[in-house]
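Moderator note: this is an archived Q&A kept for reference. The question asked for a predicted structure of one protein chain; the sequence and the answer are reproduced below.
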Amino acid sequence: MEREFLPKIVSFLCKWCSYTGADLAGINRLQYPTSILPIKVMCSSRVDPVFVIKAYLRGADGVLIGGCHPGDCHYQDGNYHTRRRVAILKRVFELLGLEEGRIRLSWISASEGPKFARVCNEFTEVIKSLGENTTKTTIFL
C-alpha cells in the first residue's frame, strides 16, 4: 500500500500579522495541513534568501513566506523589501533550473485566519502536484 505524499513546507511568518493569522486559524479550528512548519520572524523582511535556499536544500518541499499587507507593515516598508527579495529569489531558482513554484509569498493580516488556512491548503496542493523535492542534499550547510 502506497502512502500519500505529504509535503514538508517551511513557513516564515511575520510576528505581527501572518503568525497571528495562523494563530487565529488554530483558535477557530480551521483545517489546514499538518505539514506546515511555522517559524515566527519579527518581519517578513528579516527572511534572508539564504534561509529559503537552505530550507530547500535540506529537504523542504516548499517555502511559504507570510507578511503584512503592503502599507500595513509594522516596520513601515519591510514587506516591500520582501516582495523584491522573493521576486529575485524566484528568478534565481528559475536560472538554476529549480521549480520557482516551490516558493510562495502571501500577505495575510492578523484577522485573516481563514485566508491563512486557504493559502496553506492551496500551496500544499501545488507542492503535491510538483512532487517531492529531489534536490535535497545531505551535506550540512
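Archived answer notes: The helical segments are 18-27, 49-57, 78-95, 113-130.
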